[in-house]
Amino acid sequence: MASPTGGYPFEGDANGKALLNTLVRQAPGGPRFDESAFEYPIVGPDGCTTRERVIIDGASEHTLGSPCTVLYPQWVSVWDVTVLVDPAEVDVAHMVPLEEAWYSGAWAWTAKQRRDFANDLSNSISLRVLTAATNAERGSSDPAHWWPPYSGAHCGYAAEWVWVKTRWNLSVDPAEYAALMTQLDEMETNNCRDKPVYVPPPGLTPGVGPASIIGGIGAPSGTIYSLISVQAFNANHKVVRETRVRPEGLYELTGLPPGNYTVKFLGGTSGTSDQWYSDQGPGGPPEVIPLAAGRIASGISVGMVADPGSAAPDSAPPGSAR
Asked: Is there a single domain that holds both residue 230 and residue 89?
């Protein structure tokens, strides 16, 4: 058994779809874009600008020709699968462009928050080396209007876009959400299916957005998982969300308002008994799962047991599927 994640706002891994479903969906808004409000690039403690630092860190050779330039380097631009050797062809891209961030909520931030976003060197996702021509082609487009030229980079691009927007609590517009969800969806031919995404440390206090409960089941050998459904009950014992378990034993209850929840697994015609999610195992009392706004409770998983009153599958020991 696993308990809801702690942390602020999440811990560990989730999948891109679950993270995407914690973001507020709304049309872009705010006053006219002001690029100067982001103070990019700034000069760091080493005397190099943010842009120079990304180029240095992204180079294959870190021999410095001056304090802020490298000699004999190569750079790999993963979005268009290009190896660059001419510094004039190298640019630095914000994973989420500044204009996109502005209309997704950054217009309302403090000057420090915008500066921190634009110069975020705490990870390798927020800023990256890119071919100057490709960066110019993308401009400020979101995934509803632009994807990397190399299709093999689409999965990672979608996951990293959601990662940054989650870290900074930025909204997504309906068309952007649909484009990202299509890429991250559970199609058999899609490499993104249930690919784990490291949940980012928070850049801003979340406090908004729907919540999610995700997890999996184990069951006796031969059980058809897709015949089992999962229900989320609120504090008033009302079912607010229901979904089927997927064939591999995973499920997601997304778009939940903040509150306290209990989760029930219904065996249906699968040959397993109905049961509540409980820290005490099958037959135990329902475990209350508190969900704050924008929170993901992951690992809500159970081992289903055979229904003694039905022709159940053979009774292999139940396990846990994550």
From this structure: no
Is 12 part of any domain? no
Shared domain check, 151 and 34: yes
64 lies in the same domain as 99: yes
Measured CA to CA, the distance from residue 100 to residue 35 in angstroms comes to 11
Q: Which residues, at least 6 apart from 152, have a Cβ–Cβ distance to it below 8 Å? A: 81
Phi, psi of 113 (to 5 degrees): -65, -40
CA-based nearest residue to 86, from 128, 148, 42, 129 = 129
In a domain, 203, yes or no: no
| Structural domain range at position 277 | 211-303
Among 65, 66, 83, smallest CA distance to 75 is for 83
> How confident is the prediction along the chain (322 residues), in pLDDT tens digits per residue?
222 232 223 345 677 888 898 888 999 988 899 999 999 999 999 999 999 999 999 998 777 778 898 887 899 999 999 999 988 899 999 999 999 999 999 998 888 999 999 999 999 999 999 999 999 999 999 999 999 999 889 989 999 999 999 999 999 999 999 999 999 886 556 677 777 777 787 777 655 667 889 899 999 999 999 999 999 999 999 999 999 998 989 898 887 888 999 999 999 999 999 999 998 877 889 999 999 877 788 889 999 999 887 654 444 334 433 3
Both 46 and 144 in one domain: the answer is yes
Residues 76 and 133 occupy one common structural domain: yes
Model confidence, pTM: 0.74
The CATH number of residue 229's host domain is 2.60.40.10
Bridging pattern class, strands 90-94 and 127-131: antiparallel
Closest alpha carbon to 260 in 286, 279, 283: 286
Of 198, 228, 255, which closes a domain?
A: 198
